[in-house]
Design brief:
The chain has helices spanning about 30-40, 40-50, 85-100, 115-120, 120-135, 165-185, 195-210, 220-225, 225-235, 275-280, 285-300, 345-360, 375-380, 390-405, 435-445, 480-495, and strands spanning about 1-5, 15-20, 60, 70-75, 105-110, 155-160, 210-215, 240-250, 255-265, 305-315, 330, 335-340, 365-370, 385-390, 405-410, 430, 455-460, 465, 475. The protein is α/β, with parallel strands linked by helices. Bound molecules: ligand BES, manganese (II) ion and zinc ion (ZN).
Length: about 500
């Protein structure tokens, strides 16, 4: 796909579609007025009659429009100019671009009401445009013979600005490509994306992007004493993997590390899930997918940082060899864990992967995991729960999310949660009582992070969309990849 900007007026831009992002305020800004003048005031008429109100993510297709060089005009609302931010802008842009992807080989030009370009920096607008154009055709129907959407042939942004935006377009393309990859990984089914297939995929992508990779198989995991990760894996016919990916963009400086939960299917084990909750558990590897996306993007953006990413890849199944309720297992760092719920498997996988990251020199360590339903109950489906072992690292992450229009929310980590994990027979148990389940899960993880600044991100809500809406399909969302890349980028800039 060709992604570019032009200083040409949108009215004279040749394309199959001109997408016009419009605010709902009484007087639309210059760009919109310009196009409206070219089409004989039709837009003003539509607005007067209430046939197009420019409300958030409202779309209206006008075919074979005279007066502009584009064949068709797609109006997309962004709501009122005072509610305008990067998130509403991105959603509206996605709505428009996704609509155009319904046909093959489309050339698309995009123009915004001036309110958009006035409220967001040109580089942010250009980057978001490139990201969205790259992602637009990515849907959940990856196994259909005839997918609903098709990649655009070209996407041209009509924007008059003095600042150079080429590098922003490139950044957006890199991030958009990796967002697409994350969505597709999350959407792949457990019979297709096994731990082994995931590891192979990661190794191939890493090699293509100049990232070092090491894949640990069963014997190595035993040698490394990863008893917690292995306990989860032992019920599955599919062997586990732990993937380590290294991007050395600098010779010295802070060692960053990201650990991702990669449970390719979570049946719950003997604490079996009801069917309705199990059906989407192919997505329980979203943390690992996002972590992979982050290291690949860091390499492709040549960020001058040192970063290690660890993917804990296992399947949580039921069989004659599966781990049981009441079992006591020993994690890599020596902690003994009494199993009170085999469905609290993510924290076991993460325990060993976190300890391994620390042993390999992680200084600033984050993890991403679809860890608890409790976090979704607390924050809903669009917000990442942030659990701080380290306040300053939390502040950096929250700031990065703010920058890219994703939602992060700090959760409490008071000391009184930790004793809730006490066991009568072992150092701890793997679950606490019902209340505060997202926090006790984080407290559990904290035991394996000693020696590093650490923050846990529970992405059970935002990494997955249960149903489609105008701006995204149902399935994997790639949230919060953009925040993680921004965080790494900020880290690189301040080092
Ligand atoms: N993978 C689930 C968490 C999850 C729930 C992710 C909903 C996405 C959507 C995790 O392994 C799990 O089963 N957690 C249990 C923990 C409980 C047993 C303490 C949960 O949330 O019920
Ligand atoms: Mn589970
Ligand atoms: Zn799980």
């Amino acid at each position: 796909m060709n992604i570019e900007t032009t200083k040409q007026s949108p009215a004279t831009c040749k394309a199959d579609w001109l997408i016009l992002l419009t605010i709902s305020d009484e007087t639309p800004g210059g760009t919109v007025a310009e196009v409206d003048a070219a089409i004989g005031g039709r837009l003003a008429t539509l607005r007067e009659r209430g046939e197009f109100r420019a409300e958030k993510n409202e779309t209206l297709s006008l075919y074979q429009v005279d007066g502009i060089a584009a064949a068709n005009l797609l109006l997309v609302g962004v709501g009122s100019s005072d509610g305008l931010n990067l998130r509403t802008f991105r959603q509206a842009l996605q709505c428009g671009l996704r609509t155009c992807c319904q046909r093959k080989d489309q050339l698309v030009a995009v123009a915004f009401d001036n309110a958009v370009t006035d409220s967001l920096p040109a580089s942010v607008v250009a980057q978001t445009f490139a990201e969205s154009a790259t992602i637009a055709a990515t849907d959940a129907d990856i196994y259909r013979r005839k997918p609903a959407r098709h990649e655009l042939t070209a996407a041209t942004l009509c924007m008059v600005t003095d600042s150079p935006v080429d590098s922003a377009l490139q950044r957006g393309t890199v991030i958009g490509t990796r967002c697409s990859m994350v969505k597709q990984l999350v959407n792949r089914t457990a019979n297709d994306l096994t731990p082994e297939a995931f590891a192979t995929f990661a190794a191939t992508e890493a090699a293509n992007s100049g990232v070092e990779v090491e894949v640990l198989h069963q014997d190595r995991l035993e040698e490394e004493r990863m008893g917690a990760l292995l306990a989860v894996a032992q019920g599955s016919a599919l062997p586990p993997r732990l993937v380590r990916l290294t991007w050395n963009g600098a010779d010295s400086g802070t060692e960053y590390a990201i650990v991702g939960k990669g449970v390719t299917f979570d049946s719950g084990g003997y604490s079996i899930k009801p069917s309705d909750s199990m059906v989407s558990m192919k997505a329980d590897m979203a943390g690992a997918a996002t972590a992979l996306g982050a290291v690949l993007a860091a390499a492709e953006l040549k960020l001058p940082i040192r970063l290690n990413v660890y993917l804990g890849l296992v399947e949580n199944m039921i069989s004659g060899s599966a781990y049981r309720l009441g079992d006591v297992i020993t994690a890599r760092n020596g902690t003994t864990i009494e199993i009170h719920n085999t469905d609290a498997e993510g924290r076991l996988v993460m325990a060993d992967a976190l300890a391994y990251a620390v042993d390999n020199g992680a200084e600033k360590l984050i993890d991403m995991a679809t860890l608890t339903g409790a976090c979704v109950v607390a924050l809903g489906e669009e917000i990442t729960g942030v659990f701080a072992g380290c306040e300053s690292l939390q502040a950096d992450l929250v700031a990065a999310a703010e920058q890219v229009g994703e939602y992060f929310w700090p959760m409490p980590m008071h000391d009184h949660f930790a004793p809730l994990l006490k066991s009568k027979v072992a150092d701890c148990r793997n679950v606490g009582p019902r209340w505060g389940g997202a926090v006790t899960a984080a407290k559990f993880l904290q035991q394996f992070t000693e020696g590093a600044d650490w923050v846990h991100l529970d992405i059970a809500g935002p990494s997955w969309a249960d149903s489609a809406n105008g701006w995204q399909d149902a399935g994997g969302t790639a949230d919060p990849l953009r925040s993680i890349v921004a965080w790494l980028d900020n880290a690189a800039a301040s080092s």
